TrEMBL record:
PROSITE patterns tied to this protein: PROTEIN_KINASE_DOM
Protein family per UniProt: Belongs to the protein kinase superfamily. ADCK protein kinase family.
A molecular-function term among this protein's GO annotations: ATP binding
Keywords in alphabetical order: Kinase, Transferase
PANTHER family to which the protein is assigned, alphabetical: CHAPERONE-ACTIVITY OF BC1 COMPLEX CABC1 -RELATED, PROTEIN ACTIVITY OF BC1 COMPLEX KINASE 1, CHLOROPLASTIC
Source organism: Cucurbita maxima
InterPro entries: ABC1_dom, Kinase-like_dom_sf, Prot_kinase_dom, UbiB_kinase
Protein's recorded name: Protein ACTIVITY OF BC1 COMPLEX KINASE 1, chloroplastic isoform X2
Superkingdom as given in the UniProt entry: Eukaryota
One family name in Pfam for this protein: ABC1
Domain Protein kinase: 86-417
Lineage, top ranks: Eukaryota, Viridiplantae, Streptophyta, Embryophyta, Tracheophyta
């Protein structure tokens, strides 16, 4: 307020932001964690402060080894020497809630990582959360006016995630869930957890012998194919978000490793977020609406995802969304990046009653952080040039009925079939298959007979569903026939172009056999549909 009064508020912002960061560090773990959260909340804090608070994600002082080793022995119920033949004398990493050591198991000789919680942290955090909530109750009026929700709700979301991170048994379950999700993916490495040696304050995991993404030169020196590694990383991130609905909430460079065979490895699963099936579908809807340039529906998607309070007038937001997207996407994939879009979105959030739900602040942070890693390893990397092919492949090959519906929405615009979009989707999907199948990690696992390596687009289900839809849905059938005879001419060339794109991907005899096998089911559905129409007429 004083800076504002004397007219020097802008020039001292870097100094004040640094003061804020140091103050939070001195106040303890809850405040450090709050600073880390604020570093990803453009709806609450301005961008220059956010950038300074990002430092809190990597630079936290450790607590003494003696204290950490006592906690480990208390959790194990045994001396350290009985379980570990050696343990590092220095911390490998330190964070706001705990720190990590490297050790070797005495029984098996395996190297492990030991994560130890800071001492007496739980009562401190409960006390701090009480103080945060008390303060929030005085800010409810401002928060309702600016964000459309009360400040206590924001504190509750923060507190819920913070208390989850305190429970290392929950982190062990998160690890097991990630292991299950990626068990058939030979490009992703998730560490095993030693549950018999872990507890609520200590977590023992498999040691990841990889290269941190904080050291791009070491990755290049190790001979790792950077393009292949980045493709694997983006695909793994999108699978977490759009396929599993369970994603790593804190994928900063210290938590992601490049394995020497080209795989990507993740560590630190205390901060994960879950997206419901509905939220995943709405996110895909938003992608479809962006492709179709339907900004009114994009604004409605914001309401459905919880960014806007129900009943909020979205009319003023539509032109702003249109300006952001057209300015960013109009330059093409080669110039698109999430950082620039998010910067413009931050201004939108600051000017309108938009509140970013906690899980989506993690989504935004996750995408931004991983794009930042990509830029560190390859400055001219184009995130969407990898992301679009993955989305295209999922739209074309995933048998999920919801995705089939989204594919139809993409291919039809204003009642007209978009031949060019279909061709682009096929080209992009084939590109994803080629990039993934050429990755050294996939090739090695293919030779060993482990994992599933896709070398062609699996379009059997898509073609069968398309044929079924053509026969059963009169509206789709009419639109496709109109597309083939659009502008009073037969569009045979478009069909030929699509076939040429797919001829190396489809085994026609086996495809015909699959369709023939499905024919009795189609006939049955046709008869049922005809019977229902006859009965409804009566």
């Amino acid at each position: 307020m004083y800076d504002c009064f004397v007219g020097r508020d802008e020039e001292v912002v870097p100094f004040r932001a640094q003061q804020l960061r140091n103050l939070l560090c001195n106040l303890g773990p809850s405040f450090i964690k709050a600073g880390q959260v604020l570093a990803n909340r453009p709806d609450i804090i301005r961008e220059d402060y956010m950038n300074e608070l990002c430092i809190l994600q990597d630079d936290v002082p450790p607590f003494p080894n003696e204290v950490a080793f006592n906690i480990i022995e208390e959790e194990l119920g045994r001396p350290l020497e009985a379980v570990f033949s050696k343990i590092s004398s220095r911390t490998i990493a330190a964070a706001s809630l705990g720190q990590v050591y490297r050790a070797t198991l005495r029984d098996s000789g395996e190297d492990v990582a030991i994560k130890v919680q800071r001492p007496k942290i739980e009562p401190i955090i409960y006390q701090d959360l009480f103080l945060f909530r008390t303060l929030a109750s005085f800010l409810n009026g401002i928060s309702l006016q600016k964000l459309g929700c009360n400040a206590e709700l924001i504190v509750d979301e923060f507190g819920e995630k913070l208390l989850e991170e305190l429970d290392y048994t929950l982190e062990a379950r998160n690890l097991e869930d990630f292991l299950e999700n990626f068990k058939n993916d030979p490009t992703v490495k998730i560490p095993r957890v030693y549950k018999q040696l872990s507890g609520s304050r200590v977590l023992v995991m498999e040691w990841i012998d990889g290269i941190r993404c904080t050291d791009p030169q070491a990755i290049k020196n190790a001979g790792i194919d950077v393009d292949g590694f980045l493709t694997v990383g983006v695909s793994a991130a999108l699978r977490q978000l759009l396929e599993f609905g369970l994603f790593h909430g804190d994928p900063h460079p210290g938590n992601i490793f490049a394995m020497r065979d080209g795989r990507i490895a993740y560590v630190d699963f205390g901060n994960v977020a879950v997206l419901s099936q509905l939220n995943k579908q709405i996110l895909i809807d938003a992608v479809v609406h962006a492709v179709n340039e339907d900004y009114a529906e994009m604004a409605n998607d914001f309401t459905r995802l919880g960014f806007l309070a129900p009943g909020t007038d979205v009319a003023p937001i539509i032109p702003a969304l249109e300006a952001i997207w057209q300015n960013s996407a109009g330059k093409g994939l080669s110039d698109f990046n999430f950082r620039s879009v998010t910067g413009k979105f931050n201004q939108l959030v600051y000017n309108y009653p938009i509140r970013i739900p906690e899980r989506f602040s993690l989504v935004i942070r996750s995408l931004l952080t991983q794009e930042g890693i990509c830029f560190t390893l390859k400055p001219n990397f184009k995130f969407l040039e990898v992301a679009y092919p993955y989305v295209a492949k999922r739209l074309l090959t995933d048998p999920n009925p919801a995705l089939r519906e989204r594919l139809i929405q993409v291919l039809f615009k204003d009642g007209m079939f978009q031949w060019k979009r279909l061709e682009n989707l096929i080209v992009l999907a084939k590109e994803n298959v080629v990039k993934m199948s050429s990755n050294p990690a996939l090739q090695k696992n293919d030779l060993q007979g482990s994992g599933k390596v896709e070398k062609k687009l699996d379009l059997k289900d898509t073609i069968k569903d398309g044929a079924r839809l053509f026969l059963l849905d009169a509206g789709i059938r009419r639109q496709l026939l109109l597309a083939l005879t659009e502008d009073s001419q037969l569009h045979v060339q478009e069909l030929v172009d699509v076939y040429r794109l797919l001829e190396d991907q489809i085994d026609v005899p086996s495809m015909a056999l699959e369709v023939a096998r499905d024919f009795p089911n189609v006939v049955r559905d046709l008869m049922l549909a005809w019977t229902e129409s006859v009965l409804s007429d009566r």
